[in-house]
Design goal:
The protein is an alpha+beta fold and 475 residues long. The protein folds into three domains: 151 residues, Beta-Lactamase; 103 residues, Helix Hairpins, CATH 1.10.287; 154 residues, Histidine kinase-like ATPase, C-terminal domain (Heat Shock Protein 90, 2-Layer Sandwich), CATH 3.30.565.10. 55% of the residues lie in helices and 17% in strands. It has eleven helices and twelve strands. The protein has a five-stranded antiparallel sheet with strand order 2-1-5-4-3. The chain has a five-stranded mixed sheet with strand order 7-9-10-12-11. Helix 4 packs antiparallel against helix 5 and helix 9 packs antiparallel against helix 11. The longest helix has 58 residues.
């Protein structure tokens, strides 16, 4: 990975150098064009002045041979037929047979003046600038070798070129420094990829150090998300294993009782009824387990997709007292069988906007938990009080649920809401508990935006304190 990082870094440096080179070439081309244009304009002005000087000198009667222009400028006198009358440098340059055909003379003949830049016939490697003007009965043409001269601004700007070169070098060095700083996260991300691929990635992910910038925050977010996905994966694997294990127990019981009935030809009706009853009990347990798992899955899905257009649970007005009465009607026989007393101090006018089925399941699982694990002859009490939520325009109901059973060890209180967790493995299996009841309770409370805690009751037993918020009804 280090080699890839270096290649990436130097590739960016090469791209920068190419860009700077193109900019420098463009700048040089621009300066060259500017210098050429300036040189043509300056020389053309000199040639125009030379033609004026020749015209003035001839007008006062001076002979052409006596006119000296200087500065390497020569002149030619041409009649209207295109014949050369005189040329100041006739020996040094070749004159075309018919100068009237040249562009500068042709333009001067037709429009008064003209100019042209071209190579001389005798000097193909040397450019000459020509300027011609019609003067009465003749055409005066001046000419000179063309050499590019930089304008005064460019001449004065030589120091600026040096400064620009220094700035370019400084820019390249700065870019390399910044690039090295920016490429540092690449090694961190390489380490992150390696940790993700590693089976023992949990420890490695926690050891990676990310920078305190946007890239570092992004890396932390990726590592955190992957860790959560890994935890969710392991949790689902464990959950699937536990569900399969829990389903296997009642299924094995049902199968065993039915096989006994099928294979026992001389079984009495009373004994057969007994085995059928036990198989039925196991089937009920199996159905309850499936319902509990389904409830938890829906709660998980609701917490993940609760903002969707199709809510998974209907929000309606729930009368808490009526809900408790329905529960007691269903499981009243369990309370009588275990000699459990249920005391409720809940007003018949206490109502809340929530999901009836979840609230029903919440209280039923709490009571079932007390009956199954608290022991016989215990007392259950439930107290409720309404509280206005300041600043939100809503209210919540605070509940305190207490039983006088044998309670839960202090070290187990933090885990009793975990799925399939059992304080007493053997006893729970005998009483038929799935280990999902209190997990459903916690998730039902969370659905109603509340929290729940468990603590030891002085003198024995357990206390659950939780709150349910009144939710907004569906439109």
């Amino acid at each position: 990975m280090a080699k890839l990082k270096l290649k990436y870094r130097y590739r960016l440096v090469i791209y920068l150098l190419i860009l700077l080179t193109l900019l420098a070439l463009f700048f040089l081309l621009y300066v060259s064009r500017q210098s050429r244009g300036y040189s043509i304009s300056a020389l053309q002005k000199e040639l125009r002045d030379a033609v004026v000087l020749v015209e003035d000198s001839l007008s006062i009667g001076r002979r052409p041979e006596s006119i000296i222009l200087g500065g390497g400028i020569g002149f030619t006198l041409i009649d209207t037929l295109g014949d050369v009358i005189y040329d100041s440098r006739e020996k040094d340059i070749s004159i075309p047979d018919n100068v009237l055909s040249t562009s500068e003379v042709s333009n001067a003949s037709s429009s008064g003046e003209g100019s042209a830049l071209r190579s001389s016939v005798g000097e193909p490697d040397t450019e000459y600038l020509y300027y011609a003007r019609r003067c009465k009965d003749k055409i005066i043409r001046s000419y000179s070798k063309f050499e590019i001269s930089r304008p005064a601004q460019v001449e004065k700007g030589n120091n600026y070129f040096i400064l620009i070169a220094i700035l370019l070098i400084a820019l390249i060095l700065t870019f390399i420094y910044v690039l090295r700083r920016l490429s540092k996260p690449l090694s961190t991300y390489s380490e992150l990829v390696g940790a993700i691929k590693d089976k023992d990635n949990g420890n490695r992910l926690s050891e990676i150090k990310f920078g305190n910038d946007e890239l570092g925050d992004m890396g932390k977010e990726i590592a955190s998300t992957f860790s959560q996905l890994e935890k969710a994966k392991k949790y689902k694997q464990q959950l699937s294993h536990n569900i399969a294990h829990e389903l296997k127990t009642p299924l094995t019981g049902v199968r065993a009782y039915l096989e006994t009935i099928i294979n026992s030809e001389d079984m009495s009706p009373e004994q057969m009824r007994k085995f059928v009853g036990k198989a039925y009990s196991q089937a009920i347990r199996l159905a309850d387990l499936v319902d509990e798992v389904s409830t938890l899955n829906k709660l998980d899905e609701s917490s993940e997709l609760g903002k969707s257009d199709e809510p998974l649970y209907k929000i309606e007005e729930v009368n808490i007292k009526s809900c408790l009465d329905d529960i007691l009607e269903e499981i009243g026989y369990k309370l009588e069988k275990s000699n459990v007393t249920f005391n409720s101090r809940v007003s018949s006018r206490l109502k809340i906007n929530g999901n009836y089925n979840l609230i029903y399941s919440l209280f039923k699982n709490l009571i079932d938990n007390s009956i199954e694990h608290g022991g016989e002859g215990i007392e259950i009490s439930l107290v409720a009080g309404i509280e206005q939520v300041s600043g939100e325009g809503r209210y919540k109901i605070n509940f305190t649920y207490t039983d006088t059973g044998k309670g839960v060890p202090a070290e187990a209180l933090e885990r009793i809401f975990e799925r399939f967790y059992r304080v007493e493995e053997g006893r729970t299996r005998r009483t038929g508990g799935s280990g999902l009841g209190l997990s459903i309770v916690k998730n039902a409370v969370a659905f109603h935006k509340g929290t729940i805690t468990a603590s030891e009751r002085e003198g024995g037993g357990i206390i659950f304190k939780f709150s349910l918020y009144s939710l907004d009804k569906e439109a």
